[in-house]
Q: What sequence folds into this?
């Protein structure tokens, strides 16, 4: 129907092992690239350093999420047990001194809110869920979830150059170097 | 990681110190692709006949027992569960505590063993987490319907209602509502997040079509880039760190249901640790009960090795012994307290009309796991299965002993009664066993039953410095025999 134009996403290169990927990542980091990533079927420990990445900031989100949970549970328990509907049961007073009896629920809601923050924080930080991605157009990329180790350098990186980036990837041991294109609507 | 550190002796370069090689977690040097093929094969290939032979009866039992039993209960009232005497909690809360306890091993394997860097967990954690989810579903049925008028179950939630009545936040029963629902939610998040990379693996193997679309939706577009893995690993660590105190709190809160009441036999401070140890104990037995046959049926022997089974047997031995200690300590405290009602409660348990339940609990939970002191027993799958079944039954009896023998002799002699469950109650319990098995069978058919990504991670070649080590032939794999030989020759 309509003619589709192709837009270059970047280069994808395969490496033969986790060690090779690690060494290649160090070289790409030192070449000053920013928009690139290493793809592997499992998390490779130490690759964060080799890529020059910072530690994830997720724990900070979760800390505040958890605190919100604690505060919510306390507010819920205190307002209902002391303010709105004070009842004396099990000889526990209907005032602030009954707080030890609120601890279990405060604890549980801390965990619950933290857990949801982990889930939604992770989705936000990894920019998921998404239905498609240009890399899925590659013929070999499906092996990244099986036994393939890949590096993709995006074309939007300021240091990206169609010839030089390709030769860099070949130089550091990349095989099956592929120019990945996405269909431009 | 499964590699050992080089410890060359500088002053005597000819002597190589022996470094015990860690046992390989994955046998026969399997490749990444083999692991993918084998685990995905379980759900991509046609299911064996045995799968259908297990699934169809389980599903029918679930349908009749849970579906039919609960429909009848809702239509007639809780009287059909025999709630006409003081042993109200009898059978149903026994089943609730039994199922919720089983779930705990799943969280223990996924969270506590993760935090303590026990890499052998990777082969069994997915199935154990699935077991947690299904066990909590089975558990939830009992208290939800036990309260009667299940359509008012929303009264449990702190929502403003027309009567302006609020829940009692000082009650362990409300704590239980929060603890169990939080536990279910967090377990589900943990299980699902852990599965996302594996769902992506299945998605990438599917031919285009509905199947690929559905796995794609649940994989959420996962690509396995390190910028994702980095956050993902942090998320996993955080969930593990959150689940560990959570799992301890859930069974502690369940035990508060008993321990905070002023009832002889229940009112003890030992209950929280005792319940938690029992839950882990019973849960591991259930993991073995379902994983040993599954490993055999699907040919997963290289992934779930005898090493894994041996470790689980040792945990059963440890927790079984802790449980045995708790049983004896309970008796000692009753004796030492000098309280006649407390002593009488335990006399009634041991020598009363329910002596058989107490004897079953003691022999199945405390004596049967002692077989695992012997290596030969930990290596014999028949013995393992037999002990696991004993523990499953024994842990059910433990809850029966705690609940029924206590409630059958409460303060007022007019309440005393010999308890027996009603037919509908028994039917519902059998139904939950069917439900549990049917859900587990569906899990095997549709989801990756072993954590593909994490199992790959435990292979020696997954270490980014693995290739560097190849250049140093002595990295501590000298065997004991070679070492002895060298010692002799150097003298």
A:
């Amino acid at each position: 129907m309509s003619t589709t134009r192709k837009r270059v996403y970047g280069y994808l290169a395969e490496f033969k092992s986790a060690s090779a990927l690690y060494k290649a990542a160090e070289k790409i980091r030192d070449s000053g690239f920013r928009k690139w990533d290493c793809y592997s079927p499992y998390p490779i420990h130490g690759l964060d350093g080799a890529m020059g990445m910072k530690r994830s900031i997720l724990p900070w989100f979760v800390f505040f999420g958890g605190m919100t949970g604690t505060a919510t549970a306390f507010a819920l328990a205190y307002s209902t047990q002391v303010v709105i509907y004070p009842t004396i049961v099990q000889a526990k007073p209907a005032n602030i001194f009954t707080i030890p009896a609120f601890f279990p629920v405060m604890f549980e809601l801390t965990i619950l809110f933290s857990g949801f923050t982990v889930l939604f924080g992770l989705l936000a930080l990894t920019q998921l869920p998404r239905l498609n991605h240009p890399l899925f157009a590659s013929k070999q990329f499906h092996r990244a979830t099986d036994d393939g180790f890949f590096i993709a350098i995006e074309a939007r990186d300021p240091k990206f150059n169609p010839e030089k980036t390709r030769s860099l990837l070949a130089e550091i041991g990349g095989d099956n170097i592929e120019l990945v294109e996405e269909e431009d609507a | 990681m499964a590699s050992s550190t080089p410890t060359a002796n500088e002053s005597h370069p000819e002597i190589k110190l022996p470094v015990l090689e860690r046992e390989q977690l994955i046998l026969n040097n399997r490749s990444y692709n083999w692991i993918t093929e084998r685990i995905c094969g379980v759900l991509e290939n046609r299911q064996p006949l045995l799968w259908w032979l297990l699934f169809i009866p389980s599903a029918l039992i679930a349908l009749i027992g849970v579906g039919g039993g609960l429909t009848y209960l809702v239509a007639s009232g809780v009287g059909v569960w025999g709630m006409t005497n003081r042993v109200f909690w009898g059978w149903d809360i026994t089943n609730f505590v039994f199922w919720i306890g089983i779930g705990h091993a799943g969280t223990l394997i996924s969270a506590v063993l993760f935090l303590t860097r026990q890499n052998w967990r990777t082969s069994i954690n997915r199935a154990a987490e699935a077991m947690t989810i299904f066990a909590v579903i089975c558990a939830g049925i009992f208290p939800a319907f036990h309260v009667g008028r299940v359509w008012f179950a929303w009264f449990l939630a702190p929502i403003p209602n027309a009567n302006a009545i609020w829940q009692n936040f000082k009650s362990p029963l409300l704590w239980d509502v929060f603890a169990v629902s939080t536990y279910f939610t967090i377990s589900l998040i943990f299980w699902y997040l852990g599965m996302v990379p594996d769902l992506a693996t299945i998605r990438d193997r599917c031919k285009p079509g509905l199947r690929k679309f559905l796995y794609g939706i649940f994989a959420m577009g996962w690509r396995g880039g390190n910028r994702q893995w980095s956050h993902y690993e942090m998320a996993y660590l955080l969930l593990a760190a959150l689940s560990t105190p959570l799992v301890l709190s859930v069974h502690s809160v369940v035990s508060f249901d008993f321990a905070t009441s002023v009832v002889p036999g229940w009112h003890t401070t030992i209950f929280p640790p005792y319940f938690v140890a029992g839950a882990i104990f019973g849960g591991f037995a259930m993991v073995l009960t379902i994983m040993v046959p599954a490993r055999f049926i699907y040919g997963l022997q290289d992934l779930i090795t005898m090493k894994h089974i041996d470790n689980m047997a040792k945990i059963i031995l440890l927790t079984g012994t802790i449980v045995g200690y708790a049983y004896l300590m309970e008796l000692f405290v009753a004796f030492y307290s000098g309280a006649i009602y407390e002593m009488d409660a335990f006399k009634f348990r041991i020598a009363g009309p329910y002596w058989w339940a107490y004897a079953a609990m003691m022999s199945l939970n405390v004596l049967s796991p002692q077989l695992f002191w012997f290596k030969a027993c930990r290596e014999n799958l028949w013995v393992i299965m037999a002990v696991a079944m004993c523990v499953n039954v024994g842990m059910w009896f433990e809850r029966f002993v705690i609940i029924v023998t206590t409630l059958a002799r409460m303060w007022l002699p007019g309440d005393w009664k010999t308890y027996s469950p009603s037919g509908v109650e028994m039917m519902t319990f059998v139904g939950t066993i069917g439900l549990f098995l049917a859900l587990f069978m569906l899990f095997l058919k549709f989801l990756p039953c072993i954590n593909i990504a994490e199992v790959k991670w435990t292979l020696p070649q997954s270490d980014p410095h693995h290739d560097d080590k190849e250049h140093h032939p002595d990295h501590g794999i000298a065997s004991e025999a070679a070492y002895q030989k060298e010692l002799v020759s150097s003298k």
